[in-house]
Input
Amino acid sequence: MKKIVLLSALIVMHVSAAFSLSIARLHYDGGGDWYNDPDMLPNLAVYINKELQTDLSEDLINVTPSGAELFDYPFIFMTGHGNVSFSDADIRNLKKYFKNGGFLYADDDYGMDKSFRRELKKLFPGRELVELPASHEIFNCYYKFPKGLPKTHKHDDKRPEAFAIFDDNGRMLVLYTYEANISDGWASERVHKDPWTVREKALKMGLNIFYYMMVN
Output
């Protein structure tokens, strides 16, 4: 209960300054399927609202990298199997978004890794993705993941990895999960036929990401 009270107070402070209390999905260009499994975020919002007594919008909200509406949301999410491409206008707007306190969570759905890393270099020249150890706060801030990032879908035997980009003050700007496919676990059961034990673990990790973003 103390965690929920703390989160509620921090959300009021964080959101009242600039943002709406919602998670939005990034509609990027390049040909990748940015739109797959559209019930991902609504399902995650329902879970977070139930567990944390928050009031996240449970509607599907899409934003573009160069749109003014980007600045209405503290947390944006992206996934996909294909190519990611940011235009010069996208890069300018996203840089401003991160400078103003925004956060991006990107979950590779087995296929966007190469293009996403390429576009990150345009966004953050001179900054590198840093792998997060299992001891990092994001795996321990609400639910405990002693082994670090869980793996939702096993397409191969590669271990799941979580990377981040931080600003000069240590604030996480981007979280990138690779070989984990956490967001597939947020989709409705009928989509990937995942059992509840797998989906619940993915939803708990999603809640941790939201919680970490709001309290840091």
Observations:
- The longest strand covers residues 172-178.
